[in-house]
UniProtKB/TrEMBL annotation:
Entry cofactors: Mg(2+)
Domain of life: Bacteria
Entry-linked InterPro entries: CysQ/Inositol_MonoPase, Inositol_monoP_metal-BS, Inositol_monophosphatase-like
Catalytic reaction list: adenosine 3',5'-bisphosphate + H2O = AMP + phosphate
Name recorded for this polypeptide: 3'(2'),5-bisphosphonucleoside 3'(2')-phosphohydrolase
Keyword annotations of the record: Magnesium, Metal-binding
GO BP annotation list: 3'-phosphoadenosine 5'-phosphosulfate metabolic process; sulfate assimilation
Any one GO MF annotation of this record: metal ion binding
Coiled coil feature spans: none
Residues reported to bind Mg(2+): E64, D82, L84, D85, D193
Length: 251
């Protein structure tokens, strides 16, 4: 087994365990609304940090729910974690939320696990799924609350169906699982929102990039990584051209 595969299996184990914790917390009925989301963020983060400290002592971690430390910029291996992606949806009792555990190596999204606890599944780079058939009409997943204007325009032009969904991980895994064909986001996100989903999508053989076609690069000083495109490789050139046309039209 390669070292990276051991890291993938660890990412999967931790994402699954954190997902179970989050389900238990919600089922307890102890918290609701924003208090539930806050408790979920904190409890999942604490568990994930302890697990990483135990299994990979001394390695750098960048988490949505922890203070950032610039020491990570000197590290080749950095765990990039979103303990609860789709906090809003989790606190609303919906099923579109996820746990993200990724390992960036030299800025590349090398390892990732995305747990979808309500569905009882975890997708990870140790066993990336085969690509399913495309949908007809084409389905584009977009943020429920902040759909990318580019995605809305492209759907209108091409007759694609827009599928609003919470959580970057849930949307990316919808493409990996064949429930959707395209995930196009713009306007804002951070490294933890996309690192694990991008690692899994890339391992599954999908196209992954920024919406200008440049690569997704992680463990940067500035963790703002505001846009992404995940789709079939053969669909990428036309989608990137449409995004360019949209940007030119907006000028
Ligand atoms: N414009 C924006 N600015 C900052 N973060 C954004 C954003 N749009 C989406 N996100 C983040 O990306 C994740 C998925 O969002 P969405 O469901 O809207 O697609 C959410 O992460 P969290 O739930 O971890 O905060 C959300 O906060
Ligand atoms: Mg997130």
């Amino acid at each position: 087994m390669s070292d990276t595969n051991a890291d993938s299996l660890l990412a999967r184990r931790i994402a699954e365990a954190a997902g179970k914790l989050l389900l238990t917390l919600r089922d307890s009925g102890m918290f609701s609304g924003k208090a539930l989301g806050d408790a979920g963020d904190q409890i999942a983060n604490a568990m994930i940090l302890r697990a990483l400290a135990q299994e990979r002592p001394g390695e750098a971690v960048l988490s949505e729910e922890s203070a950032d430390c610039s020491d990570r910029l000197n590290c080749s291996r950095v765990w990039i974690v979103d303990p609860l992606d789709g906090t809003r949806e989790y606190s609303e009792g919906r099923d579109d939320w996820a746990v993200h555990i990724a390992l960036a190596i030299d800025g590349q999204p090398a390892v990732g696990a995305v747990a979808l606890p309500e569905m009882g599944i975890t997708l990870a780079t140790d066993t990336p799924p085969a690509l399913p058939r495309t949908n007809d009409p084409v389905r584009m997943v977009v943020s429920r609350t902040r759909p990318a204007p580019e995605a809305v325009a492209i759907a209108e032009q091409t007759g694609a169906e827009l599928v609003p969904m919470g959580s970057a991980g849930a949307k990316a895994m919808a493409v990996v699982r064949g429930e959707a064909d395209i995930y196009l986001h713009s306007g804002g996100q951070y490294e933890w929102d996309s690192c694990a989903p991008i690692a899994v999508a890339r391992a599954a053989g999908l196209h992954v990039s920024r919406i200008d076609g440049s690569p997704m690069v992680y463990n940067m000083a500035e963790v703002w990584l505001p846009d992404l495109l995940i789709c079939r490789k053969e669909a990428a050139p036309a989608l990137l051209a449409s995004v360019r046309d949209f940007a030119q039209g907006a000028r």
